[in-house]
Amino acid sequence: MGDLTKNISQHELTCKCGNCAVTIQSHEPVVKLVQDCCDFFAKSTGVDKVTLKITSAARCQPHNTDIGSNDDSQHIRCSAVDIQIFSQGRQIPPSKVFDYFDGRFPDACGVGLYNTFTHFDTRTEKARW
């Protein structure tokens, strides 16, 4: 359950239902790409490391249904995370995180903007909301 990257630990990538072992594996591209995002915001805000909060990662099908998500969710494919990034005690606005991923992957990936977090997934087609 140790650290996978500078900002991501394996336990953060596991389904939050408490009844399964569904998790995003360390080799999945989403892990590296979220770490790249953290590194970008650390550099742009002049700190060595930002604080990353993963509010949702992998989900088993029952948990996905319980929280009201749809069957097409990338979370059940273990390729999606909902994140918040903080630097120096302040949250990087989710819109800035959205803009980072949208700019880096203009023709692919799923990027969703919410009031308090940003969704990112590694689907091959472009999806924005």
Q: Can you characterise this structure?
A:
The protein is an alpha+beta fold and 129 residues long. The protein has a single domain (10-128), classed as Muramoyl-pentapeptide Carboxypeptidase, domain 2. It has helices at 29-45, 61-66, 94-104, and strands at 51-56, 80-87, 90-91, 110-113, 118-121, 127-128. Strands 1, 2, 3, 4, 5 and 6 form a six-stranded mixed sheet that branches. The longest helix has 17 residues, at 29-45. The chain is globular and about 40 Å long.
Write the topology of this structure.
Elements: H1 29-45, E1 51-56, H2 61-66, E2 80-87, E3 90-91, H3 94-104, E4 110-113, E5 118-121, E6 127-128
Parallel strand pairs: 4-6
Antiparallel strand pairs: 1-2, 2-3, 2-5, 4-5
Short key terms for the protein model shown above:
six-stranded mixed beta sheet; 26% helix; Muramoyl-pentapeptide Carboxypeptidase, domain 2; alpha+beta; 129 residues; 3 helices
Measured by DSSP, the beta-strand proportion falls in: 15-25%
Helix-strand string: HEHEEHEEE
Question: Which outline best applies?
Answer: globular
Count the domains. 1
Amount of helix:
25-40%
> How many β-strand stretches?
6
Discrete helix count? 3
Gyration radius over CA: 14 Å
Outline of the structure:
The protein has 129 residues and is α+β, with helices and mostly antiparallel strands.
